[in-house]
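Handout for the seminar on molecular recognition.
Each group receives one record of this type.
Step one: identify the two inputs.
Step two: read the structure output and locate the region that could contact NAP.
Step three: write two sentences on what you found, then compare them with the reference statements printed after the record.
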Amino acid sequence: MSIQSVAIIGLGLLGGSIGLAVREQTPEIATKGYDRDPAVRDAARKRGLAGTICDNAADAVRGADLVILCVPVGAMEQAARDLAEHIGPDAIVSDVGSSKQSVAEALARALPGHTIIPAHPVAGTEQSGPEAGFASLFTNRWCILTPAKDANEGAVRSLSAFWTKLGANVELMDAAHHDLVLAVTSHIPHLIAFTIVGTASDLEEVTRSEVIKYSAGGFRDFTRIAASDPVMWRDVFLNNKGAVLEMLGRFSEDLTALQRAIRSGDGETLHELFSRTRAIRRQVIEQGQDDDRPDFGREDHV
Ligand code: NAP
């Protein structure tokens, strides 16, 4: 099925970016949007985040070929329940949640009998809300679809084609594997950033003003990640608990090994690890997943 109309539920960073990307990349697809917050709906109308901004979710999903839930992971089930009786029998229901196993289960509970293809565009920023979205957010980023084994193949193809039109590279993955991969590539890095920024702000020996004043030494790059939306990230950790705890165990062991190397003056271990990590940074740049300018393109780098 070729997707002609899309309903976007939740008009923050992700929902807004999908609406803007459709308008720019594939304007023949009609979009309707809904957010539960009236102020967000007003802002969405002003920015044209969807062709029509509806004042209730039922109007947004009625007649849509594709319904995409762009709400925090912990809000998916209720949002889906509120829509259940209004979504057409042939519509594809998808989402953009950052964890996939729990969302797939929540959507299956809320929408029995519907065609559900969960997805996660691995693209974002630390900004949130209706002013944060932009049309190129998905360009050359991966969008991971996690269809169940018995998912409708035509629906998977249609959703893949949709994300490809928005500029993303599409990959299919088992939901449990997705959660493990994202635990190590996204969730633990965020947890580390939240921790280090929290630790620095609690220090007694070094004042908070010194931490901020000298932040260009590395700390400020963590503050960017640690400024991410608190609701979104609370929900990610509560919903990807198993994979995060498993990867955190591995991380703690590696951290203890480094602690031992520093204590015992084992420079060889430190140098070997730092050389490997530098090579990984080069690969990230070679694969077009980051800017190769020093300090991510900032001019006042240290
Ligand atoms: P966001 O900017 O905070 O937008 C979410 C919007 O959804 C908010 O306006 C929120 O309103 C609204 N909402 C909440 N419950 C709703 C409901 N039941 N019905 C309608 N609207 C509802 O968040 P985001 O960054 O776009 O994240 C959305 C999803 O994308 C999350 O599942 C997240 O895991 C995933 N994701 C995020 C990123 C990222 O970098 N941010 C990247 C990839 C995927 P209220 O403020 O009133 O709650």
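Reference statements: Residues 175-202 form the longest helix (28 residues). The first strand starts at residue 5 and ends at 9.
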